[in-house]
Amino acid sequence: MEKYIDWENRAGVGILTLKQPEKHNALNRELLIEMESRIRKCHTDNGVHVLVLRGAGKSFCAGGDLDGHPYFSTSSPVVRTNFIREAQRVTLGLQRLPQPTIAAVHGVAGGAGLDLAMACDMRIASEDARFGVLFTRVGLMSDMGGTYLLPRLVGVAKALELMFTGDVIDAKEAWRIGLVNQVVAADALEERVLDFAARLAKGPLQSYRLSKWAVYRNLGPGLEAVLEQEVLGQSFLANTEDGREGVQAFLEKRKPKFKGF
Hints:
The protein is of the alpha/beta class. It contains eleven helices and nine strands.
């Protein structure tokens, strides 16, 4: 039985709900493994026509769970790298999934949580949603596909601005720059997402599959290659003075003092 996610199939609409609301659905290893397993099952499940990804409680996903996270609990580069690659399997699984995928975003979508939302084909956000790359705040970088996904959604210049500043933007700005498809009232999010998913679920599934395959195949360098670059970059940054200072400052709840190396 799955502990960190809930799963439901409503007439062809698969609903995968992150279920760690007390931590704003922060991603731990067990949650990521459960997600990847469920997404893999969807790949061959003809009863799932569309996948909806959402979070329980007050947020979609606030990023990585600090409790037991290898970037905060170990200095082993092997452990850290293996954790990143496990997390990346979720990103790859979502993009490789033949069915359309929709992220229903409310509250916070930050760091790896933003990467997760961007790994879906479409995003519908509530008016209270907030989005932030956040990694730069602790001297690190996106490691679940953000460097591939964000520029393709909002353009290179805006993507780099968000990466460099770590600024958090609201739902209205996210819609303006193309990060989300729709913005709806907070109390209307579930109905809008499920209505849209149900509409797609009644459509030409093989057409969706081939369209999705063609679109992602023609975006340029493959996601797999970019994820490997993120592994190398994140592993390097974790061992720099600024990277260590950023993580320590985050744990101590203070502003980091970066030196630039």
